[in-house]
């Protein structure tokens, strides 16, 4: 009997910050190659067994079981299975505005396209889950399963890479730490957070993150935090909140300390500033 309900084709929303393209697995033949060629999306490969070679325009990388490599859009690549011990590969292709940020957090780039993951860890498991979801095109839950599996895979990959040795002097890592510090301030300024709290959240020493922050931003993190709070307080001055309520709202439980910092920043005490600026 024919169903009265029309079949609906499901697609992954192109507005997502990460968009799944395709995934797969192949046991390659001896000497099997791809390229040279380019992709218009990102593609991550994971090697289950065997060996092979991955090449960019600048370098050649022998790879084996437990290793991975990735391609960025618009760059020339080729890869080749070993003649005597050809690799078995899995891959996932994707794109999206958030991808460069996640790759930067993982320390991956065109110049640094390699990673290593445990063969039986969560990275491989989440990759397999994504492949299985992609093999079931008639499932109404397929778009959600693919998206969830892709995020899980990238999270597992990020964890696996960051669990390995990291060069703290690498510029991408420094930029990532500074970005995380700025994000920490913007999301935690409204309570009595300290720079020590920020350093602890980032897993860094206070001295190290303070040095990175000042070099990148131009002022010490404590000064930036104070200025950020005062700017938020100045915005709140235009509303009906009392000075005490504004003080608490920007992370100060002591109204006197808040008033002192506000005057130091803007040259006027909060009440005087509100009066001069025409606030409530």
Automatic annotation (TrEMBL):
<keyword id="KW-0238">DNA-binding</keyword>
<dbReference type="InterPro" id="IPR037923">
    <property type="entry name" value="HTH-like"/>
</dbReference>
<dbReference type="GO" id="GO:0043565">
    <property type="term" value="F:sequence-specific DNA binding"/>
</dbReference>
<dbReference type="Pfam" id="PF12833">
    <property type="entry name" value="HTH_18"/>
</dbReference>
<feature type="domain" description="HTH araC/xylS-type">
    <location>
        <begin position="179"/>
        <end position="276"/>
    </location>
</feature>
<keyword id="KW-0963">Cytoplasm</keyword>
<protein>
    <submittedName>
        <fullName>AraC family transcriptional regulator</fullName>
    </submittedName>
</protein>
<dbReference type="InterPro" id="IPR009057">
    <property type="entry name" value="Homeodomain-like_sf"/>
</dbReference>
<dbReference type="GO" id="GO:0003700">
    <property type="term" value="F:DNA-binding transcription factor activity"/>
</dbReference>
<keyword id="KW-0805">Transcription regulation</keyword>
<dbReference type="InterPro" id="IPR018060">
    <property type="entry name" value="HTH_AraC"/>
</dbReference>
<dbReference type="InterPro" id="IPR020449">
    <property type="entry name" value="Tscrpt_reg_AraC-type_HTH"/>
</dbReference>
<dbReference type="InterPro" id="IPR050204">
    <property type="entry name" value="AraC_XylS_family_regulators"/>
</dbReference>
<keyword id="KW-0804">Transcription</keyword>
<dbReference type="Pfam" id="PF02311">
    <property type="entry name" value="AraC_binding"/>
</dbReference>
<dbReference type="InterPro" id="IPR018062">
    <property type="entry name" value="HTH_AraC-typ_CS"/>
</dbReference>
<keyword id="KW-0010">Activator</keyword>
<dbReference type="InterPro" id="IPR003313">
    <property type="entry name" value="AraC-bd"/>
</dbReference>
């Amino acid at each position: 009997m024919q169903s009265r309900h029309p079949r609906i084709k499901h697609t992954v929303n192109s507005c997502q910050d990460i968009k799944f393209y395709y995934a797969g697995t192949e046991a390659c033949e001896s000497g099997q190659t791809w390229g040279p060629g380019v992709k218009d999306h990102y593609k991550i490969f994971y090697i289950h067994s065997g060996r092979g070679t991955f090449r960019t325009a600048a370098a050649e990388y022998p790879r084996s079981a437990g290793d991975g490599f990735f391609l960025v859009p618009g760059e020339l690549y080729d890869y080749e299975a070993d003649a005597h011990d050809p690799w078995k590969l899995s891959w996932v292709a994707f794109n999206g505005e958030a991808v460069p940020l996640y790759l930067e957090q993982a320390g991956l780039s065109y110049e640094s396209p390699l990673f290593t993951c445990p063969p039986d860890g969560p990275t491989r498991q989440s990759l397999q889950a994504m492949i299985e979801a992609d093999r079931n095109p008639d499932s109404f839950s397929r778009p959600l399963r693919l998206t969830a599996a892709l995020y899980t895979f990238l999270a597992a990959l990020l964890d696996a890479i960051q669990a390995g040795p990291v060069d703290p002097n690498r510029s991408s890592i420094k930029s990532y730490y500074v970005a995380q510090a700025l994000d920490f301030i913007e999301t935690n300024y409204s309570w009595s957070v300290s720079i020590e709290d920020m350093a602890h959240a980032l897993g860094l020493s206070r001295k190290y993150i303070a040095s990175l922050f000042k070099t990148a931003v131009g002022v010490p993190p404590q000064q930036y935090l104070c200025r950020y709070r005062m700017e938020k307080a100045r915005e709140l001055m235009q509303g009906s909140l009392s000075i005490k309520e504004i003080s608490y709202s920007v992370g100060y439980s002591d109204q006197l300390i808040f008033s002192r910092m506000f005057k130091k920043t803007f040259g006027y005490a909060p009440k005087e500033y509100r009066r001069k600026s025409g606030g409530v």
